[in-house]
Amino acid sequence: MQRHFAYPVALTADEVDGGFVANCRDIPEAITQGDSLEEVLEAAEGALEAAVEMRMEDGLDIPLPSEIREGEHPVSLPVGSSMKAAVYLAMREQGLSKSELARRLDLDEKEARRILDPRHATKVPTLERVLCALGKRVEVVVY
User: Using CA atoms, how far apart are residues 103 and 33, in angstroms rounded to an integer?
Assistant: First the structure.
């Protein structure tokens, strides 16, 4: 299954405080605000990243992004977070625990736990190797 992590975000004017409020219909807990368009979209990326990380920590699903509707803005997870989310989803699809992932990759369990830890800056080549071991291929798309 092909996955991408660019979610539609709707912006509404904040009549009380000024600026904009951003919310993501696919991940409703990712809601934030900002004074300018640039600021609110940057804040939306952070809110989306935090919401996806919380879902991973809580063992919850990460939904596929919906089609972007008129007036919505695509907001992407950072590359590292996208790759960690892809590892998490591949493990769920295959019913793999972190212990089983560690055995498959010949890692100790501490290293396997850090792969999905949002506070650990796992290197992109490591995440790419893990995804390959899970039967996935990474492709970068720039638009």
Answer: 43
Q: pTM of the entire structure? A: 0.90
Task: Give CA–CA dist 32/22, Å, rounded.
Answer: 5
- Average pLDDT along the chain, 143 residues, taken 10 residues at a time: 90 91 97 96 97 95 95 94 95 92 88 88 93 92 77
Give per-residue burial for 55-72: e unless 16+ CB within 10 Å, then b: bbeeeeebeebeeeeeeb
The Cα-based distances of 143 to 6, 34, 101 in angstroms read 11, 24, 33
Determine whether 51 is exposed, middle or buried from the number of CB atoms within 10 Å of its CB (0-12, 13-18, 19+): buried
| Residue 121 CB contacts under 8 Å (≥ 6 apart), including other chains | 80
Q: 128: how many CB neighbours lie within 10 A of its CB?
A: 16
Nearest to 55 by CA among 76, 26, 34: 26
Taking the C-alpha atoms of residue 87 and residue 126, their distance in angstroms, rounded to an integer, is: 11
Longest CA pairwise span in the chain (Å): 55
